[in-house]
Amino acid sequence: MNSGQNASSHPKSSPNLDLQDRNTFGFDASAELAYEITATDQISGIMQEIAEKQLTWRVLGGGSNVILPKVLPGATLLMNITGQQIITADASSTLIAVGGGVNWHEFVAWTLENDLPGLENLALIPGTVGAAPIQNIGAYGVEIGEYIDSVEAFDSKSHAFVTLTKDACQFAYRDSYFKKNPHHYIVTKVVFKIPKLWHARIHYADLAKQFSKNSSPSSEDVFLAVCKIRTHKLPDPKVIGNAGSFFQNPIVPNEQYETLLQKHPGLVSYPDAAGKRKLAAGWLIDQCGFKGRRMGDVGVYEKQALVLVNHGNGTAEDILGLAKCIQDKVRKEFGVSLDIEPNIL
Ligand code: EPU
User: What pTM does this model have?
Assistant: First the structure.
């Protein structure tokens, strides 16, 4: 790694740290006690101090997939380990090690500048590299788990650094071992494996439409197209607070899908694992008439019903109240449960 890794330093904590700029919903929130992590060798001391003080803890990356309360109790670890480096390259692939605190989109842009195409479908996803494996970020037909070789992390149970193979990460749709076990590992570094053989992955409807007249776009073309689609459909968190998709696309058995389709011929869905079907939650919410609806200072984004937004002074309670209204209505209309995607801290 080219920065931060060897700089040994004593854990430094900040009480009552303001987190309004560190959560993309822009909620007025603060951390009771925050530790900034800029090097791996700070972690052991910080975790020892946290254990001695008997504090609860969690890691905060870019804050783009969280719902924060007014005060986050206990210790909040701010992951700021940077640096990215090509470790090895052979005829078939390139391995790149990247610090958990690196900005995701900047890393994707860097891979393209270094002639390592593959991640372009995941351009402009907010957040950090360390958070990417937690929810197995995905967009436009690609999930990051496909490109991860291993993850390096601090194991809070054994108090040692470990390397998790891709299999150990248990990647699934918006899911991983880390997401199911939030207090086990602190992700410090992600090792990506980028195959040398590249082809544009443009089968996803929005991209297929963009390239209807160009069936062999470059990785740069795909990158720019993804940026254009996302900018058009999704609100910029710097302008209007949001955490991207607020609900997961629900996965239902094929029989339930067939029954729903008969009743609702416009139902949007995708094939999933054997015998299952993934429904477009945005479509379900849209059909219930929520798009653009406002409840106090929170609401449903006017161009994409899957995105809930903070119009200014909204709180975690407000957003969860709106989410409950949506969940109840969708269950009543379609008999389908929607799971909240961001982590409620
Ligand atoms: N739709 C509607 N009305 C809406 C929104 C969507 O009818 O208000 C329909 C669309 O017309 C489309 C379908 O629903 O036919 C799916 O919509 P879209 O292609 O926008 O994708 P999505 O399923 O809503 C998922 C991911 C996004 C990712 C896009 C593109 C989840 C939960 N969300 O959204 O991820 O960018 O696909 O691949 O899987 C995120 O996780 O934060 C995120 C933005």
Answer: 0.95
